[in-house]
Amino acid sequence: MDLQILPIDHPKPRISDENNLVFGKQFTDRMFVMEYDSGKGWHSARIQPYAPFVLDPAAMVFHYAQEIFEGLKAFRRADGTIALFRPADNFARFNRSARRMCMPEVDERFVLDALLELIRLEADWVPHNQGTSLYIRPTMIATEPMLGVRPSNKYLCYIILSPVGAYYKGGVAPVKIWISDFYVRATEGGTGEAKTGGNYAASLYAAKQAAEDGYDQVLWLDAKEKRFVEEVGSMNMLFLYDGKIVTSPLRGTVLDGITRRSALTLLGDMGYQIEERALTVDEVMEGATNGRLTEAFGTGTAVVISPVGSFCYKDSCVRLGDGQPGKLTMELYHKLTAIQYGKEADSHNWVTLL
Ligand SMILES: *Cc1c(COP(=O)(O)O)cnc(C)c1O
């Protein structure tokens, strides 16, 4: 398939204040788009001006939520070059999500090459300040106008780019987490491991309640016994428990995070023993009190590493540490971001340079 490159007529003004970028609100001048029709496959791949789509009100995505997405970042390095972090892993996961949602797979190499070309054209949009990046959002939606319940015969796949600020402006701040004993995010056999919008729609109600009560995030328990800790919002959870790293195994209800994987590899390099097992909510609450649980943090592309300051479950709250992020948490945060921004050697070949 050819990639067509269309001109832009009216470039937007460039980023005026890199220190005040709001996450996911501003988009660049161009986007990548391709279309799919059953029997024909993917076609009309192009880089075109960023613009709204015209979609039929009956388009299946609006009714039955056939939608998947990805999230990754491009980083500007001190020497001006631009680096992507493990982008092939994102497109591999995009295809795993596509299979689960009965959507067509994409040619991973083609789409990654198209993304690299798009970022080359939009290079001026990759911000320069410490901690800033260009957030990349590949998306696929079902577009066939049809109200019958079955997989769509038409799809749009597109990639949009958004310059984003440093997640932590005043230093890395520990978050307050509410452990939900009622609402659940994903069930065994469900779509928890697919990166699909419906999982997020299902999570909003509990997240809204948590926010109203002053919490930053919801920690989800397994849906069956409401006993085992799974993940948080858009982050996987890692715990330093008895001096070992403990994190939920990937058994269908937890998203296979690329930051999680990278963190586990780096922690293994640092000599930590890794246990992929589900910690119980009692282990978390008691562990924070009796000293067996010393650090806990979330991992995800947007935030990188997010230290937990406290957990609240039913009527009790426990604190971790002294209100400061844990020592290992910060060491890992610095190691991972140093690789992303090219300040430390990329010994695992995670970086793709433009
Ligand atoms: C995207 C996502 C993550 C984090 O994955 P990364 O690849 O590390 O960004 C974790 N949990 C959920 C539910 C997600 O959607």
Could you give a quick summary of the protein structure above?
One of its GO terms (molecular function) is branched-chain-amino-acid transaminase activity. With about 350 residues, the protein is of the alpha+beta class. It has helices at about 60-65, 85-100, 110-120, 195-210, 260-270, 280-290, 325-340, and strands at about 5, 30-35, 40-50, 65-70, 70-75, 80-85, 135-140, 155-165, 175-180, 215-220, 230, 235-240, 245, 275, 295-300, 305-315, 315-320, 350-354.
Structural overview:
The modification N6-(pyridoxal phosphate)lysine is found at residue 195. InterPro entries: Aminotrans_IV, Aminotransferase-like, B_amino_transII, BCAT-like_C, BCAT-like_N, BCAT_family. It catalyses: L-leucine + 2-oxoglutarate = 4-methyl-2-oxopentanoate + L-glutamate; L-isoleucine + 2-oxoglutarate = (S)-3-methyl-2-oxopentanoate + L-glutamate; L-valine + 2-oxoglutarate = 3-methyl-2-oxobutanoate + L-glutamate. The chain has 354 residues and is α+β, with helices and mostly antiparallel strands. The chain has two domains: 4-164, Aminotransferase class 4, branched-chain amino acid transferase, N-terminal domain (D-amino Acid Aminotransferase, Chain A, domain 1, 2-Layer Sandwich); 175-340, D-amino Acid Aminotransferase, Chain A, domain 2, CATH 3.20.10.10. 24% of the residues lie in helices and 30% in strands. The strands form two sheets. Strands 1, 2, 3, 4, 5, 6, 7, 8 and 18 form a nine-stranded mixed β-sheet that branches. Helix 2 (87-100) crosses helix 3. The two termini are 22 Å apart. The mean pLDDT is 95. Bound molecules: pyridoxal-5'-phosphate. Pyridoxal-5'-phosphate (PLP) binds at residues 71, 195, 231, 234-236, 255, 257-260, 299-301.
